[in-house]
């Protein structure tokens, strides 16, 4: 209770609690989704990745709930425009500060894993397990790279929002729609395989641009209803008429995927989420006036990058030792039975506890690093080299 009271006392009256309240579940959806939809199989004592979506098609609607990157980019755009408007220095200085804040935790987790790989290998952990682990650790970090790019575009997003309001996101939707028609239409087989890469930037910039327009006061309740209803209709049409894959995440063995790169279905879902978030903003802000509910939201937001960067490590901290015990239901067994689903749900609280324990130390990477001395420069250089080495190892796997 003392912690709750201290957090409440330190919260400025001007703090937009609804924005933090929206970001918190979007953050928690990332580890929840990866822990629930990411399984393993044992192959001669080594762990390999496996997905329950290959067996259980009904899991697809679960991914609609857990795929909350639309909310994350929406809130990111809203918060970025407010920060951009309050900047005291140049745009370059503002951008450098935000990129540095995002980069420190990524550099930290990759540097630590660069040290762990040879140590674990020397301790007898199979190379296949280490390659599986490195792939999982890298998996959520793509988001940071995309987020850095869209953040760099904030000044342009602000300018376009000032002219077009909510319609500033429409051309991005159009680009993704055209690319999807080319990829999946009657001439899809003649299209180059790299064409989908074109969707990466407009696909994830869509919700960010909506957030910028919202932060500029150019999206109200009427616009939010259009996003909610229009996005819902588009989502249904794409699923039922154009037969888009139902899962919002990739399914092993499937030729098409919605998220990598983002398809039009991802943008339809982001529109629904954005419209609902804008409509519920005042209600969320009212609920979070209660100190006991506001305190965990603050803690989650302060640990945002730590959660994103280290949640896969927390799962591996249970799965790698478990692999030495053989077939552990829900942990190292193939995700192909209802028993696996129950077992994985029971394992998830342990993953959460392990993440909290890791975060006690890993949050140090979110704080500003010491600078100005030779020793500090040497540590930074060493961290950079280790991170680069791990990236080469993980991507080669």
Write the layout of secondary structure elements.
Elements: H1 2-10, H2 17-37, E1 39-43, E2 46-50, H3 60-66, H4 69-86, H5 91-122, H6 127-138, H7 142-152, H8 154-164, H9 170-184, H10 200-215, H11 221-240, H12 264-287, H13 291-302, H14 304-323, H15 338-362, H16 374-396
Antiparallel strand pairs: 1-2
Helix pairs in contact: 1-13, 2-4, 2-12, 2-13, 2-14, 4-10, 4-12, 5-6, 5-7, 5-14, 5-16, 6-14, 6-16, 7-10, 8-10, 9-10, 10-12, 11-12, 14-15
Describe the 3D structure:
The protein is mostly helical. Helices cover 70% and strands 3% of the residues. The chain has a two-stranded antiparallel ribbon. The longest helix is centred in the first third of the chain and has 32 residues, at 91-122. It is globular, with a radius of gyration of 22 Å. The relative contact order is 0.17.
Short description, anyone?
This protein is mostly helical. 70% of the residues lie in helices and 3% in strands.
Q: What are the defining features of this structure?
A:
globular, two-stranded antiparallel sheet, mainly alpha, 397 residues, 3% strand, 16 helices
- The SS-based structural class is mainly alpha
Residues in β-strands, percent: under 5%
Strand order of the largest sheet: 1-2
Low-confidence stretches: none
Computed over alpha carbons, the radius of gyration is 22 Å
- Biggest pleated sheet: 2 strands, antiparallel
Q: Any idea what the shape is?
A: globular
Count of alpha and pi helical runs = 16
Share of residues in helices: 55-70%
How far from one another are the termini? 47 Å
SSE string, helices as H and strands as E: HHEEHHHHHHHHHHHHHH
